[in-house]
Write a structure and sequence with these properties.
5-stranded antiparallel β-sheet; 59 residues; single chain; mainly beta; SH3 type barrels
Length: 59
């Protein structure tokens, strides 16, 4: 997923961090101004700068 597509992320969507596979599956909590808060299985709540990381959507 490209960084531009991060704007489509909405609360409740499931994602993975491409550079941190050990964090496991994450659920988007919020997406405000390119700052995406995700609650990951193994890393807890993390705020990600969508300008630098393109999260991967899980279906």
């Amino acid at each position: 997923m490209s960084k531009d597509l991060n704007a489509m992320l909405e609360p409740g969507m499931l994602v993975r961090h491409p550079n941190q596979p050990d964090w496991g599956l994450g659920q988007v909590q919020s997406n405000i101004g390119g700052r995406i808060t995700v609650n990951f299985e193994n890393a807890g709540k993390v705020v990600i700068n969508g300008e630098h990381v393109g999260l991967l959507i899980e279906f």
